[in-house]
Write a structure and sequence with these properties.
This is Aspartate-semialdehyde dehydrogenase. The chain is an alpha/beta fold and 330 residues long. It has ten helices and 14 strands. It has helices at residues 11-22, 55-60, 72-84, 107-110, 126-142, 160-170, 202-215, 249-258, 276-279, 310-326, and strands at 2-6, 29-33, 42-45, 48-51, 65-68, 88-91, 103-104, 120-122, 144-153, 221-228, 235-243, 262-264, 285-292, 299-306. The chain has a six-stranded parallel beta sheet with strand order 2-1-5-6-8-7, with helices on both faces. A six-stranded mixed beta sheet has the order 10-9-11-14-13-12.
Length: 330
């Protein structure tokens, strides 16, 4: 497999390379692509050196697969060019997610919809992925009516400069890079991404639209508030789910414990519940604090945590690639 990784030096790009190596994906020729200032530099993959090249050089080499993690503008310009030379693109930006003719994939849920004709495949938003991993089995069993999700999102979701800002502020360095409109250390910002329609942020809009497409179900309502918090290990979500049908709490926990890629951590007597510190570096989605909403019927509260750079981005993309390879779709 000849594979290009677009944005190979970025936070997600680096994790994609790490996950490809960890999962022993059959890479025979790696084509790392990054910005002009990185061209000619070397990266190490599986013990071998590979030179970072330009986008055009990668395009000329016609890879079997291109994994994009370089922002929406880059994806909109170059993903169709790669598709035109026969390359299958897995794109980590928001550029293609809600396009009607593009598939939005979480492999545990809907990989079966993929075909050889799908040359640009969208990787969902990080917060969306961990949410739908839990919603999916519950929706099948109890029929979701309404979801209220509040997120507590890691600075790693904004990128390296955001991590640098947090670390600078922890050290008291007031002259470092500023990504957020306010300090993030000892703070919580009720703004992830820019504000858009009706005073929702783009992140909140993604959370309110992408799950319906992934689950293939637009019959439920969903609303979101996304908050940036000064942590690095992963994203957390407080989720309230109202169902059409009654549920049994033990059955809910059993369903979730059997769901692929989901781990139940729910032993409050021993203070066991999901946390970003625990999820960092792991590929699973962790769920806990599972309890009935005592304020209204047929409603559940739970807490979901996942490493946003891995299952929320890189691992999910690599899992898509694995499905394509295993099913001879590339």
């Amino acid at each position: 497999m000849k594979i290009a990784v677009i944005g190979a030096t970025g936070m997600v790009g680096q994790i994609i390379l790490k996950v490809l190596e960890e999962r022993n994906f059959p890479v025979t020729d790696l084509i790392p692509v990054a910005s002009e200032k990185s061209i000619g530099k070397k990266i190490i993959f599986k013990g071998d050196e590979f030179e970072i090249v330009s986008m055009q050089t990668a395009l000329d080499r016609k890879p079997d697969l291109a994994m994009f993690s370089a922002g929406g503008t880059t994806s909109l310009e170059f993903a169709p060019k790669f598709a035109a030379v026969g390359t299958t693109v897995i794109d980590n930006s928001s550029a293609w997610r809600m396009e009607a003719d593009k598939k939005l994939i979480v492999p545990e849920i809907n990989a079966q919809v993929l075909t050889k004709e799908d040359k640009i495949i969208a990787n969902p938003n990080c917060s969306t992925i961990q949410l739908v991993m839990v919603l999916h089995p519950l929706n099948i069993k109890y029929d979701v009516k309404r979801v209220i999700v509040s997120t507590y999102q890691s600075v790693t979701g904004t990128g390296k400069n955001a991590v640098d800002q947090l670390n600078d502020e922890v050290l008291g360095n007031k002259d470092g890079v500023k990504v957020y409109p306010y300090e993030i250390f000892k703070n919580a910002l009720p703004q992830c991404d820019v504000f858009a329609e009706d005073d929702y942020t783009k992140e909140e809009i993604k959370l309110m639209t992408e799950p319906k497409k992934i689950l293939g179900d637009d019959t439920f309502n969903i609303t979101a508030t996304a908050v940036r918090v000064p942590v690095q290990g992963g994203h957390s979500e407080s989720v309230n789910i109202e169902f059409e049908n009654e549920f049994d709490l033990d059955e809910v926990k059993d369903l979730l414990s059997k769901a692929p890629g989901v781990v139940v951590l729910d032993d409050v007597k021993n203070n066991i519940y999901p946390m970003p510190l625990y999820s960092e570096g792991k590929d699973e989605v962790f769920v806990g604090r599972i309890r009935r909403d005592i304020s209204q019927p047929k409603t559940l509260n739970l807490w979901i945590v996942a490493d946003n750079l891995r299952k929320g981005a890189a691992t999910n993309a690599v899992q898509i690639a694995e499905y394509l390879y295993q099913n001879k779709l590339i």
